[in-house]
């Protein structure tokens, strides 16, 4: 007999064009040569700081992350299947956001195949299925709602379909398990304390051990009371650099991440440049091989947060989307330089040095 949450997961099973398959093919993907300046930055970047991108299967990253394949670019499909090992060979890339899991769950064996392609120090940021975090069922093509989601905040479904397979398959390479909540709507936001308590209750009953992180799209939830509820339940906030949210330093302050006594890991997803939606940013930034609109304010703020967290022996996980500035790999390089050097002009010189 199929349970309601299994039916819901089936409804949510709509894959994006990237990360679609784990079956091998004949297309080899090699890492690009690393600029010596980037290698120098990686050598002094604190080991607790894990920087990376959101997914890895972008042909426009050829020359930045992947070596050219003669006169042709690798395809999204070949990178989805073969690109992860080459991606993880980049000295600055110590994590990646595994976004495929947002659309449909993976088995422990599928997670294990990903883990086998990366070095021991690498950690995956893994997104929980939308079937757990979205209060509505949405039509695949339009995103319009078609009813209430019976699996919303279902701890049994989250543990069985997501947490246990991820932990079993990734092992020690499992980093933050990120539960990204969309804008939750007027009805749920009418009672913030109750909503915050419901979300926190999910993590109170999930299996102990993983690092659970909660990403929100409603600024009203970014408050000390919500952060305290999460902490008591065994979860941490995930800061979202996103057009819907306040500046990242303000989020950190609201959620208690700037308190001297804060000791939990810093988790950040740099998602979207202010003033854009995802489709507009995708159209403006494609093929994602250069920075189009630099967000120096967010970069400087993230560098300060990362330095402070690492200095207090806290792990740092920051993943960056192409829609943040135009090219996630270049954003990683610029952020790493800002963390290491602390001043943008010096970082620029180090990155462009030919010494």
In short:
With 355 residues, the protein is α/β, with parallel strands linked by helices.
What is the CATH homologous superfamily assignment? Answer: Protein of unknown function UPF0759
The top level CATH class name = Alpha Beta
What is the CATH third-level topology name?
TIM Barrel
- The whole-number mean of residue pLDDT values reads 89
Helix content: 40-55%
- How many structural units, i.e. domains? 1
CATH architect. name:
Alpha-Beta Barrel
Q: What is the spatial order of strands in the main beta sheet?
A: 1-2-3-6-7-8-9-10
Low-confidence stretches: 14-25
DSSP helical segment count: 15
Notes on the protein architecture:
The chain is an alpha/beta fold. It has one domain: Alpha-Beta Barrel (TIM Barrel), CATH 3.20.20. The chain contains 15 helices and 10 strands. It has helices at about 5-10, 35-45, 75-90, 110-115, 130-135, 155-170, 185-190, 190-205, 225-235, 250-255, 280-285, 295-310, 320-325, 330-340, 345-350; strands at about 50-55, 95-100, 125, 135-140, 145-150, 175-180, 210-215, 235-240, 265-270, 315-320. Helix 10 (about 250-255) links the parallel strand 8 (about 235-240) and strand 9 (about 265-270). The longest helix is centred in the middle third of the chain and has 16 residues, at about 155-170.
């Amino acid at each position: 007999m199929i349970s309601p949450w299994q039916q819901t997961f089936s409804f949510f099973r709509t894959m994006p064009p990237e990360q679609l398959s784990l079956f091998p093919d004949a297309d080899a993907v090699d890492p690009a040569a690393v600029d010596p300046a980037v290698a120098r930055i990686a050598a002094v970047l604190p080991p607790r700081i894990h920087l990376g991108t959101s997914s890895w299967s972008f042909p426009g990253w050829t020359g930045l992350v992947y070596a050219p394949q003669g006169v042709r670019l690798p395809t999204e499909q070949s990178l989805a299947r073969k690109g992860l090992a080459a991606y993880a060979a980049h000295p600055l890339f110590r994590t990646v956001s595994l976004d495929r899991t947002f659309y449909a769950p993976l088995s422990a064996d599928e997670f294990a195949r990903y883990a086998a392609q990366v070095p021991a120090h690498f950690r995956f940021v893994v997104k929980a299925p939308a079937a757990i975090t979205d209060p509505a069922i949405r039509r695949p093509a339009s995103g319009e709602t078609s009813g209430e989601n019976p699996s919303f905040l279902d701890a049994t479904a989250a543990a069985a379909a997501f947490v246990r397979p991820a932990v079993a398959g990734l092992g020690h390479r499992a980093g933050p398990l990120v539960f990204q909540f969309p804008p939750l709507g007027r009805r749920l936001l009418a009672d913030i304390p109750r909503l915050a308590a419901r979300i926190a209750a999910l993590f109170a009953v999930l299996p102990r051990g993983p690092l659970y992180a909660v990403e929100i799209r409603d600024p009203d939830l970014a408050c000390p009371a919500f952060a305290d509820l999460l902490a008591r339940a065994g979860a941490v906030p995930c800061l979202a650099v996103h057009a819907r949210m306040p500046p990242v330093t303000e989020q950190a302050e609201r959620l208690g991440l700037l308190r001297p006594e804060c000791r939990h890991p810093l988790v950040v997803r740099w998602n979207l440049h202010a003033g854009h939606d995802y489709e507009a940013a995708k159209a403006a930034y494609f093929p994602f091989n250069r920075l189009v609109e630099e967000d120096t304010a967010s970069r400087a703020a993230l560098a300060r947060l990362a330095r402070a967290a690492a200095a207090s022996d806290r792990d740092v996980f920051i993943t960056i989307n192409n829609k943040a500035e135009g090219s996630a790999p270049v954003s990683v390089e610029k952020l790493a330089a800002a963390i290491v050097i602390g001043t943008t002009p010096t970082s620029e010189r180090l990155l462009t040095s030919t010494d």
